[in-house]
Amino acid sequence: MWRSAQNVFWLAAKEVRSFLNDYVLLGLVIWSFTFSVMSMAQNTAQEVYHAAIAIADEDHSQLSHAIAQSFLPPYFKPAQLIDPRDIDRLLDMARYTFIIDIPPHFQRDVDAGRVPAVQVNVDATAAMQAGVGAGYVQQILATEIARHAAQTDEAPPNTVGLALHIAFNPNATPGWFMSIMGILNNISMLAIVLAGAAVIREREHGTMDHLLTMPLSPVEIALAKVLANGFVVSVATAFSLYVVVRGLLAIPIAGSIPLFMAGVLLYLFFASAVGLFLATVARSMPQLGLLFMLVFMPMMMLSGGNTPLESEPYVLQILMQGVASTWFVKFAQAILYRGAGFSLVWPDFLAVAGLGSVFFAAAVLRFRQVSAAAVG
User: Fold this and answer.
1) What b/e sequence results for 170-184 when a residue is b if at least 16 CB atoms lie within 10 Å of its CB, and e otherwise?
2) Average pLDDT, stretch 287-297?
3) Does the pLDDT value for residue 25 go beyond 80?
4) Cα–Cα distances in Å, from 42 out to 112, 115, 163, 184?
5) Greatest extent of the chain over all pairs of C-alpha atoms, in Å
6) CA dihedral defined by 120, 123, 128, 130, rounded to 10 degrees?
7) Distance of CA 37 to CAs 42, 129, 242, Å?
8) What pLDDT is recorded for position 258?
9) What's residue 103's pLDDT?
10) How far is CA 188 from the centre of its chain?
C-alpha cells in the first residue's frame, strides 16, 4: 500500500512537471482563469448598455422633445435627431440599434384623447440588446405619454403596488453571475482536457509503453494523472476566486471559498474521469478535441448554469440528475451566491462524490483494459 502511494506521488509529480513544460496547456489554464473570467464578468452583451438610439421627430412638440430627452445613460446613448427619410439607410448601416419615428400631430392627438401610433425600428442583429431594449423603450414611451396626459411630472400611480426584493444581487449585475459561472465552466473544461491530453501525450511520445512495462499498475498511472491535473485545476480555481474575482473585479462572494474548494476536489474526480475515459477512446489529440465538444457542450448547457434546470424538459431534468456537473453547479451557486453552509449542501456533495466515484471506477476499468491490450 505504501509502495503504491509512493508510485502515485512520483507519477503525479512527473505529470505536474510535464504540464509546466507544456506552454500551450499552461497558457490555456492561465488565460481561462484570469483574462477569460474578467472578460465574461465585464461583458455587457447580456444587458442594454449604451445602446445607440435616434429620434425621427416629425411633430416637433413639447411631448416629442420630452421623449427624446428621456433616454439616458447608461442604458442608452443620448438620442440623436435624424431625418425620417434616413431611417432605412441608417438601419442598414447599423448606426443605431433603435430608431423611434414620432408622427406629425402626435401631441395634438394625445391631448385629444386619441391613440396615435409611434413606430419603433429595432436592429435585431444585436439580439440580446434588441429584445431587452425594446421593452425599455416601450416603458419609457408609455411613462412620458402618461406624464404628459396627466400634466404632471409625477408618474401615475399603479393600481397594484409591487414590492420588489432582489436577493443576493441587489443591482442585478450580470458580472456577478457571469464571473462565477465562467469559473465553473472552466473547471469542467480544463479537468477533462488536461486529463485526456495527459494520456494522449504519453501515447504520442511513446512513453506510455515504457510506463506499462515498469512495475506500475494501470490504476496507479490513471490515479496519478487524475490527481496531478486535479491539483493544477484546483490551484488555478482558488487563485481565480481570491485574486481575480474578489480582488481585481471586486465581486463579493457570499459563502465560504474553502467549502466550495472541498466540493471542487470531489467534482474533479468526475471531470478528470471523463477526460481519462475519452482518452481511451480517442487515438489522437484532434479526436480527443471532437469527443470533448460532444461531451462538454451538453454538460455546460444542461447542468443548470446557463438556464435553470427546472426550465428544461422533464426528461432532460431526470437524465441530468445522473451527471455530477448538475449537482456541482447547484452547490456552487448555493455557496458562492447565497452563502449556504455545509448543512445545506451536503446532499449535493454526497451526490457528486457518488457519481464521481462511479465514473472514476468506470474510467479506470476502461484504462486498465486498454493498457492490458497494449501490453499484450
Assistant:
1) eeeebbbbbbbbbbb
2) 90
3) yes
4) 47, 41, 29, 17
5) 94
6) -10
7) 9, 22, 12
8) 94
9) 92
10) 12
Q: How far apart are CA 216 and CA 3, in angstroms?
A: 10
Q: Does pLDDT of 127 surpass 90? A: no
Within a 10 A sphere around the Cβ of 292, how many other Cβ atoms?
A: 19
Residue predicted with more confidence, 7 or 268: 268
- Per residue in 132-191, pLDDT (tens digit) is 888 889 889 988 888 887 775 555 565 666 677 778 887 777 778 888 999 999 999 999
Instruction: Please answer whether residues 229 and 15 qualify as being in contact, where contact means their C-beta atoms are separated by less than 8 angstroms.
Output: yes
The CA distances from residue 151 to 60, 106, 155, 289, 328, in Å, are 18, 16, 10, 64, 55
Predicted pLDDT at 233: 93
- pTM above threshold 0.85: no
Percentage of the chain modeled with pLDDT above 90: 36
Overall average pLDDT of the 341-356 stretch: 93
3-state SS string for the chain: CHHHHHHHHHHHHHHHHHHHHCHHHHHHHHHHHCHHHHHHHCCCCCCCCCECEEEEECCCCHHHHHHHHCCCCCCECCCEECCHHHHHHHHHCCCCCEEEEECCCHHHHHHCCCCCCCEEEECCCCHHHHHHHHHHHHHHHHHHHHHHHHCCCCCCCCCCCCCCCCCCCCCCCHHHHHHHHHHHHHHHHHHHHHHHHHHHHHHHHCHHHHHHHCCCCHHHHHHHHHHHHHHHHHHHHHHHHHHHHHHHCCCCCCCCHHHHHHHHHHHHHHHHHHHHHHHHHCCCHHHHHHHHHHHHHHHHHHCCCCCCHHHCCHHHHHHHCCCHHHHHHHHHHHHHCCCCCHHHHHHHHHHHHHHHHHHHHHHHHHHHHHHHHHHC
Measured CA distances, 51 to 71, 73, 121, 122, 128 (Å) = 10, 9, 13, 11, 11
Domain positions in the chain: 2-43+170-375, 53-150
> How far is the CA of 327 from the CAs of 70, 78, 331, 362, in angstroms?
45, 45, 6, 19
The fold for domain 53-150 equals abc type-2 transporter like fold (3.40.1710)
